[in-house]
Amino acid sequence: MTTLEATPAPPAPTSKEEQPRVAETGTRRTGLYLLAIAVVWGLGYFLFKNHDTLSRPFVQLNGLDKWFNHIRDNIQAAGLHNWFFHGVIGNGSTFVNDHVIGELQGWLSTPSGGRPVPEVGWLGVVAIFTWIAYAVAGLRSAGLVLVGTLLFGVLGYWQDSVDTVIITILAVVVSIVIGIPVGIAMARRPWVSATLTPVLDVMQTMPSLAYIPIAVVIFGPGATCALVITTIYAIPPLVRITEHGLRSVSATTIEAAGSMGVTRGQLLRKVQLPMARRTIIVGVNQCTLAALSMAVIAGLINGPGLGQDVIYALANLNVGDGAVAGLLIVVIAIVLDRTTTAASERRERTQGSLGAVSSPGVMLVSVVLEHLPRWASQDTRAPRRRPSPLMRRIVLLVTLVPVLVCVYFSHSYLDLAQFPTAWNVGTHLSNGINSVTDTVVNHVDTFTAWVKNAISYGFLNPLQDLLASTPWWLTAPVLLAISWVVGGLKPFLTTLVCEGVILGVGLWNDSMTTLTMTIVATVLVMIIALIVGVWIGRSRTADRIIRPILDAFQTFPSFVYLIPALALFSPSRFTAIVAATLYAAPIAVKLVADGIRGVSATTIEAARSQGITTWQMIFKVQLPMARSSIALAANQGLLYVLSMVVIGGMVGAGSLGYLAISGFAQDNLLGKGINAGIAVTALGILLDRTARAAANRGRT
Amino acid sequence: MARRHLRLPGWISFAAACALGLSACGGGNISKTTAGSGKTCGDLNIAMNAWTGYYADAYVVGELAKNKLGCNVKYVKLAEEPSWSAMANGTVDTILENWGHDDLVKKYITQQHVVEDAGMTGNQGIIGWYVPPWIAKAHPDITDWKNLNKYASDFKTSESGGKGQLLDGDPSYVTNDQALVTNLHLNYKVVVGGSEAALIQSFRSAEKNHTWLLAYFYEPQWFFSEEKLVRVHLPKYTPGCDSNPAKVACDYPPYHLNKLISTKFADSGSPAVTLIKNFHWTNDDQNQVAEYIAKDGMPGPAAADKWIAANQDLVNQWLQGT
To answer: If 0-12 CB within 10 Å is exposed, 13-18 middle and 19+ buried, where does residue A206 land?
Structure first.
């Protein structure tokens, strides 16, 4: 690896250990370098504390902030008359609002044209969704969809749940129309791939809050804007996996096809696409789950659906409502995941498992939203024989009859159009959760304050002092040196550029505060990941019990975590850290567990025959051998944490996240908010590339 | 194969039976609803800014529009300033409690003509800094801002970096606090986060545990009937003293809260326009509904219905001309 050669490589001493590892010596030296850096940094802190921290009052705008504001004003003024902003964007966005999304809502979810209810009532919607699931994914999925859709009403959020499904599915359709051709182009032409890969990297590292303000300026808050940001967020995984799928069609097959004289177009249509179809459907699956998570965040900018309910619950500190709405999002995620997975499985049962696609090969590319609740989508039964295509078509046609009957009746009768309130248990559930929360909060508020103070004074504040109160001209080189030592030349250059960007937008001090919170939360995540990950990696029983919980936690949208955290800890940075830790821990735990489990049985057996203790097994064999998985867990944890620390600006985390949120909440702070989004992105890229380089080095 | 043949028709007939059965017992044919005067109302998208007083306005107007005028009412949960731009692009029709926003008035009403003033709500708004009753009792001089620095170290928290903490509400609320702290040379740090509910929880907890708390708060506010918070007086407000947001060094102005409608909606001829323009009530009215919602935990529409039923005369005045 180039990165290894770039560092001053010490002469490799002969190791006396049984399994000599090249990285072993490197690590020790790395530690020494890091120690030296820490000493310089600490010394600088004591000498120059509070000088040149570049801290800037909240309301003070710099030239760049004002420039963005100015552009926004011009765009808004142009929105009244200009042919492009009024004619194309304005009318286009109104059209999508009123006639695409509005029309669909009028059919399925909201009162339409003088009727107090939508054209198709709840019974009809349940029937349609179930039938579609049956058509694309089979009977089991249909059953799941039936239950899931009924839950929309039973939990008391019928309209908003259907709206969420509408936005998610529309975004997926748009992503497929754009993403799959782009993925194909990337697989076939190296220059397209080389151009677009960095763009996709940035898109996936960019926290969602960073581009919301820009989208709002262009489209105005509303359903169209929600659709746009959801699509932007959902496309990268689909493009990536499509490219990956097409590329992994074996060279032998392509050569064989080539020898039969097929054209490039035929090769694509008849060979590559069919063979990559299952992989592409996995891409659609990932794209769907990404779309769902963004459709929720889009609630901030008047995107229809459950996101608004979660945000409303946050504003009212209503833990119960937040939990119920969050639960429904989990239900939708499971239903969509199961349906898309089952759709891929029924097409090609003969192909082998898809394990390879979700292996670190793709994971390492960037944040892959490994949101799949696997327990919901695993089909453990042996494949049954399928009916013939003709038979299937007949069955589908016949089953359409009761669906149409349901649609007709739900159009005509009020009780079948409006979900019966008597069946609503969501309110009771929410009240129950709230009364429990109130009791807990009232009894533990002094204790939670104590925990918050202990961690804030003991860990968070000193670290923040070191990062943010040391002069920038010292912290910046220190970060550069660290990236060099742990990563090598490439992360060094990335860090250089990213620091330049952060300084350029004038948000150095706020970025350092955000970085501090990210580091603290990541440390907490890794402590949890190592303890729980080792435990469930070693015990099948623990795995069976804990994994479903992790899956569910992973599917909860990020906002939902803020509500109980805020109720317990009141507005503070620690609140955001708690929420971030809960949000990022599941993925990190799973990766560590997979790493521990991946240690070969032979190695374990050999070690055991030497008669070592359990602790020795963990610390001397399993953890060292799972090193790359642990590094990967840290990398993923870091990015999850960062995205959540930013959203934590809503609950007292301050710094960049708060600026980004203020950017679209306060008119004159828009420019500063956009700049905060840019700084967050730079910070994310800096952290991701450095951590990834360190992880790669761990593997070599 | 044989199994499938047998199972599927069973499923079909089950579904059909369910549908028929439900339709048989389910009543109520759906007819097109029209307004009392015959004008159809259509859609009414009410912005729903995040404080309980606003919810009170929105649900009362929303329930009347829905039940008396037959509008399809939708509550758009959006922050204050984005609600203005949502009126500009047509996804929101009205804001029912507007707190000033002179810059936005200039931009959207005066310059772009996409938003119109729809009159006062009758509510008088106050924004200020408040302390829980126990502090005011134990340290009466705290109500003068000049003494704030004396107590700064008491208000210290883990978040305030060695200074006193001033707790703010939702990031989207109208506030000059960051500038005030700087310009009045106060040894305080503004910590922003949470919401009205989080502020109320903080006040309750501070009063219960006798901990120090200085926070942004506002009236009309139902919570004052539960806890008599005491306001800290900042340098007196004079017209224009807050014109430069970065240089503000005076108290918040008294707000005469008003309603806004988008020009497009105003011209639509919807009977809801008249209702919104007529809507006018007192702080006590609003606090009553807000208390139903926030303290008694009633769902918004139910709270509004309860208040409407008890105030028929006033409501009938609002409905005149619709």
So the answer is: buried
Q: Do A159 and A116 form a contact (C-beta atoms < 8 A)?
A: no
Token match 């009466």: residue?
Answer: B140
SS3 sequence, A587-636? Answer: HHHHHHHHHHHHCCHHHHHHHHHCCCCHHHHHHHHHHHHCHHHHHHHHHH
Query: Is residue A426 less than 8 Å (CB to CB) from chain B?
Result: no
> Among residues 78-137 of chain A, which lie with CB inside 8 Å of chain B?
79-80, 90, 93-94, 97, 110-112, 114-117, 123, 127
- Cβ of residue B309 closer than 8 Å to a chain A Cβ: no
**Subunit contact A222:B86, Cβ cutoff 8 A:** yes
Residue of A nearest to B88 (CA): A220
pTM to 2 decimals? 0.84
Is the CB of A316 less than 8 angstroms away from the CB of B178? no
State the first-to-last Cα distance of chain B, in angstroms, to the nearest integer. 64
**Measured between CA atoms, how close is B25 to chain A, in angstroms?**
9
* A547 touches A375 (CB < 8 A): yes
CA distance A96 to B91: 12
Place of tokens 């499509």: A242
Composition of chain A by helix, strand, coil, percent to 5: 80, 0, 20
The whole-number average pLDDT for the span A549-553 is 81
Q: How confident is the model at residue A363 (pLDDT cuts 50, 70, 90)?
A: very low
Contact check, Cβ <8 Å, B158/A574: yes
d(CA A108, CA A124): 9
In sequence order, which ranges of A298-358 are alpha helices (DSSP H)? Answer: 306-315, 319-347
Q: pLDDT for B250-272, tens place per residue?
A: 999 999 999 999 999 999 989 99
Provide the 3-class DSSP secondary structure of residue A252. helix
**Exposure string over B294-312, b if 16+ CB within 10 A, otherwise e:** beeebebbebbbebbeebe
Between vectors from CA A331 to CA A329 and to CA A335, what angle results, nearest 5°? 115
Query: What's the pLDDT tens digit per position in A151-182?
Result: 999 999 999 999 999 999 999 999 999 999 99
Residue A27 has pLDDT above 60, yes or no: no
Residues from chain A contacting residue B69 (CB–CB below 8 Å):
none
Chain B stretch 95-124, residues whose beta carbon is closer than 8 A to a beta carbon of chain A? 103-104, 107, 111-112, 114
CB contact under 8 A, A114 and B40: yes
Which residues have CB under 8 Å from A183's CB, separation 6+?
Answer: A238, A239, A240, A241, A242, A243, A245, A246, A280, A283
pLDDT over 60 at B16, yes or no? no
State ipTM.
Answer: 0.83
